[in-house]
Amino acid sequence: MGSNAGGFDFDLCKRNAMLENKGMTLPKAWKTGTTIAGLIYKDGVVLGADTRSTSGNTVADKNCTKIHFITSNIYACGAGTAADLEHVTEMVSGQLALHRYATGRQARVITAMTMFKQHLFKYQGHVGAALVLGGYDLNGPHLFTIYPHGSTDSLPFATMGSGSVNAMAMFEAYYKDDLDRPEAMALVARAIRSGVMNDLGSGSNVDLCVITKDGVDYLRNYEYLQAKTYTRQFPVKYPPGTATIVKQRVLSLKGVEVIEGVAEEMDVS
Amino acid sequence: LGTSIIALTFDGGVILGADSRTSTGNYIANRASDKITPLCDNVYTLRSGSASDTQAIAGYVQHFIAQHQAEEGDQVTVKTVANLVKMMAYNNKDFMQAGLIVAGFDKHGGGQVYSISLGGTVTATPFAMSGSGSTYINGFCDKYWRENMSEQDAMEFITRALRYAMTWDASSGGCIRTVTITAAGVKRQFIQGSQIPPTYGELPRQQVVA
């Protein structure tokens, strides 16, 4: 359709600009306030995230998962539009599963990063996904930040989301090269906690994910920061006689036939 | 990418230099970024403008030039690479904000520097600079740049120029990265922020972690 000039096709951008000129308002994406962080330590990568999902000023999900599975050795923390994140991480995860079967090798973190950035650049920032991608492959531990417009950075420690400045403050103060595992986990948890406490868009609990060459430790709700003081019992158990019987009427069902049915085979052709 | 990037030819090759600050608004997204990207073995590019646009262009050019390099053998000419970058920038000018400097060494033309501005104009010059920080060092470069400097003088000039640009431009800073390309190959150097001597009026920089 468009002239094949070096691989880009911006025809839809022209269409959107024309529609906007005619008076159409472009839809606004809903963002999730978030604190996500990751750092590289001696043996691998530690990723962390809060668990609050918001729509406007209401908390939509008090305990959502923001650390998404990509492959067995790669996970991505996501900030931005919840739907976009869910779909783009599932898409790349699926593509990498096929890629693994085609190549016969464990996926590399840079492969996942390239798939993300090429997809996001194609959509010129309209896919609202900002990610902290971390993993361990044959070249060692890797940590990348990926922005909605498709740019990436490779860093030893990174934060994203509305609480990123809070988390980054912790990292800049306390990060060192070659931390050991308990120190690294404590630092990431501290960084996320800083976002949870000081950013309105982040809250609830802290999830951690530790990725090394030996495997993954997905620590769901590593820290409970906003536990409920009262937990409701499910199912609710009320002893018989709790409710006062005001009136009683017993009906016996007459003329009800029970037919032993013969199951008909489903038609498969 | 608010940036300071410089490339110049010297007697024997080219030197590319850049700061390391990537900012989104007033926040520094990456204080140690690498703006010097290889396009093929003997040609590198300096990126300024939108990070996503320049990374995408560099990705495409790396892909096509790798195929071209397989056909041509090791020596892809700098002009070919610069031309491909220009085509991407020119044909998509309405949707991009990318200012790139392509520099490298080939045996036909020696060290060459090509500057590709926002609209897709290519200018071949012995010295080029771009990015928001470059505006502050026009006077300095005018006075101190000479044609055909030695490698050591050229390196000193670039680091000094970048130092001033990083001082005066808020969108530039961090550390100084340089890449030297000669017939012998490619050499990468890195000057940490704390090792950059402070300019007049500045407090000495302290060592920051990593």
TrEMBL record, chain A:
Q: Subcellular location, in the record's words?
A: Cytoplasm; Nucleus
Q: What does this protein do?
A: Component of the proteasome, a multicatalytic proteinase complex which is characterized by its ability to cleave peptides with Arg, Phe, Tyr, Leu, and Glu adjacent to the leaving group at neutral or slightly basic pH. The proteasome has an ATP-dependent proteolytic activity. The proteasome is a multicatalytic proteinase complex which is characterized by its ability to cleave peptides with Arg, Phe, Tyr, Leu, and Glu adjacent to the leaving group at neutral or slightly basic pH. The proteasome has an ATP-dependent proteolytic activity.
The entry's keywords: Cytoplasm, Hydrolase, Nucleus, Protease, Proteasome, Threonine protease
The name under which this protein is listed is Proteasome subunit beta
What family does the database annotate?
Belongs to the peptidase T1B family.
> PANTHER family in the record, alphabetically?
METALLOPROTEASE TLDD (PTHR32194), PROTEASOME SUBUNIT BETA TYPE-7 (PTHR32194:SF4)
Major location (coarse): cytoplasm
Q: How does it assemble?
A: Component of the proteasome complex.
TrEMBL record, chain B:
Reactions mediated catalytically: Cleavage of peptide bonds with very broad specificity
Keywords for this entry?
A: Cytoplasm, Hydrolase, Nucleus, Protease, Proteasome, Threonine protease
Tell me if Hydrolase is a UniProt keyword of this record. yes
Output the InterPro entries linked to this UniProt entry: Ntn_hydrolases_N, Pept_T1A_subB, Proteasome_bsu_CS, Proteasome_sua/b, Proteasome_suB-type
Any Pfam family matching the protein: Proteasome
SUPFAM superfamilies membership:
N-terminal nucleophile aminohydrolases (Ntn hydrolases)
Q: Which domain of life is it from?
A: Eukaryota
Q: How does it assemble?
A: Component of the proteasome complex.
Q: What does this protein do?
A: The proteasome is a multicatalytic proteinase complex which is characterized by its ability to cleave peptides with Arg, Phe, Tyr, Leu, and Glu adjacent to the leaving group at neutral or slightly basic pH. The proteasome has an ATP-dependent proteolytic activity. Component of the proteasome, a multicatalytic proteinase complex which is characterized by its ability to cleave peptides with Arg, Phe, Tyr, Leu, and Glu adjacent to the leaving group at neutral or slightly basic pH. The proteasome has an ATP-dependent proteolytic activity.
Q: Know the name of this protein?
A: Proteasome subunit beta
